């Protein structure tokens, strides 16, 4: 699913950046993809995806 239509950034790309490349915040995602640099409509959803991935990772580590 595309999160940022303007720059063609998918939820899978965001997950890959966080899990495989160690990106930990929106600043890092923006630096790697330009997400949010045009209309900005994607930023809220991208933040939610980032938080969901981080919460899941924390839960996984705790178990
Ligand atoms: S949808 Fe991401 S900048 Fe427009």
> Strand sequence of the main sheet, in spatial order?
1-2
Number of strands: 2
List low-pLDDT spans: none
Q: What is the H/E order? A: EEHHH
Q: What structural class should be given to the helix and strand makeup? A: mainly alpha
Helix content: 55-70%
Percent strand equals 5-15%
Rg (CA only): 12 Å
Question: Biggest sheet, in brief?
Answer: 2 strands, antiparallel
Q: Which ions and ligands are bound to the chains?
A: FE2/S2 (inorganic) cluster
What's the mean pLDDT score?
95
Report the span from N to C terminus. Answer: 29 Å
What is the 3D form? elongated
Count, helices: 3
Structure characterization notes:
This protein is mostly helical and 63 residues long. 59% of the residues lie in helices and 8% in strands. It is built from three helices and two strands; from the N terminus they run E-E-H-H-H. Strands 1-2 form a two-stranded antiparallel ribbon. Helix 1 (11-19) packs across helix 3. It is elongated. The model has no long low-confidence stretch (mean pLDDT 95). FE2/S2 (inorganic) cluster binds next to loops.
